[in-house]
Amino acid sequence: MFAAMTHARTIDPAHRTSLATRLFGAVLVLFVAALPLSAARAGGTPAPASVSILSGWRADDGTHIAGIRVTLEPGWKTYWRSPGQAGLPPRFDWAGSDNVKAVEVRWPRPKIDRRNGLMTIGYVDEVVFPLVVHPERPGQDVRLAVKMDFGVCEEICVPTTVRLSARLPARATDHDPRISAALAAQPVMSDVRPRCRISPIEGGLHMTLDVPEDRRVGPIELAVLELGDPSLWISSMDVTEAGGRLLAAADVYGSHEGPIVVDRSMVRLTLFGDDVVEFLGCAAGS
User: Fold this and answer.
1) Cα-to-chain-centroid distance, residue 29
2) CATH number among 3.40.1350, 2.60.120, 1.10.3470, 2.60.40, domain 2-12+188-284
């Protein structure tokens, strides 16, 4: 853990704006709450996305591998867990599930989209989010219920809520190729732990991550820093390359006065280039 006291000040509004505001502040906003989503648009027109649960299979270790499938109308997109300069990331609430101890969401490689002066990170056409479900009572069926909040955008942006449920049979063994393909499409996880230097700045922290160059990434198009705390605002990263190492730096601001706490084990750096490579955790650097 690293905690730093910050000097109280009025932070520039760009630093304090929520993800939802950054997405919808300049566009017409519609709200859709649907089950199924594909039937939710007024006037009988198709919704921009349809969502379903893929029931998957029970793994040898007792977890259940399932998926949430989002199919988008042509021209529409949805977002990755860190959506970029605009966008609403998916949020999942598993309340109402039965025989569920925990659910891990896995994220396939997203695409970078640059248009109208904004950079966003997400998916077009279709995406399957694999789920690793941990049953409370191994060997029994699972009832998986989910409330999913997410955004879809074309010329307008639609913040959307869907509520779905499905039975996940304990005896299911056939692997769903759609889920398997999404699992295989996850970013490459590096076994290297970056060094990170954290220093206080006015109103926040400055973080620099020092990592060896990874040949799988090639020329870097984008670096994304995540800290596991949605209340923190993180600037775009500046990346420099020298001597076979990468230095990726960003400023971090809190949504409230007081100390900003960074859990080094939750620091995640994702590098986008020829491939997408992730680094999880960081060691104290000098």
Assistant:
1) 22
2) 2.60.40
Question: Would you give the distance in Å from CA 94 to the centre of its chain?
Answer: 17
Domain 31-184 classification at class level: mainly beta
Instruction: Work out the average pLDDT over 149-166.
Output: 93
Q: To the nearest whole number, what is the mean pLDDT of the chain?
A: 85
E-strand stretches of 111-266: 111-115, 118-124, 126-134, 142-153, 157-168, 188-189, 195-201, 204-212, 222-226, 233-234, 238-242, 245-253, 260-262
Residue 15's identity, in one-letter code, is H
The pLDDT value given to residue 241: 87
Q: What are phi and psi of 251, to 5 degrees?
A: -100, 145
Q: Give the model confidence (pLDDT) of 184-205 as tens digits.
A: 999 999 999 999 999 999 989 9
- Give the up-direction half-sphere exposure of residue 48: CA atoms within 13 A in the CB hemisphere: 21
Cα maximum dimension of the chain: 61
The band of 24, judged by pLDDT with boundaries at 50, 70 and 90, is very low
- Nearest Cα residue to 100 out of 131, 54, 60, 68: 131
Within the chain, residue ranges assigned H as helices are 13-16, 19-24, 177-184
